[in-house]
Amino acid sequence: MYVHNANARLTLLHSHGNAADLGERYELFVELSAHLHVNLMGYDYAGYGQSTGKPSEYNTYADIEAAYECLERDYGAKQENVVLYGQSEGSGPRLDLATRLLQLGAIVLHSPILSGPRVMYPMKRTYWFDIYKNIGKIGHVSCTVLIMHGTNDDVVDCSQDKQHWGAIKGEV
């Protein structure tokens, strides 16, 4: 889903969290586009909403790659004018893509996870079976990073943000 704003300089590429899909985001996207003066693109992961395929970590990486390529090819977006926005699970594909885009405008991490298992268990290190190993990727992001998190979040503990922040090497 793409929302065009004639006054936009930036394009926001939105990755939703686990318990969401595009069907419930259209009005939010239109409102955000108007208030922030940005173009906004959102997409569903494989197996979410009306999308075909099966949900998997690998497929979420392929999904965001396809969405980003669509922004460049079909809408003429330039890397330096793209802001990646990812919420919770969406921080995984977002960070993965950001490590490969060296001229990216910025990345916004909303309630980012350290890794999949660390949402549920207070693990101190990354294991081979982890999914969304964000804590190992965030230090390889070269653009400005904004982390935001509500203190009443009962899914992702705010303490994970401090670990992300400590691993960032670029501008925060």
UniProtKB/TrEMBL annotation:
Protein's UniProt name: Serine aminopeptidase S33 domain-containing protein
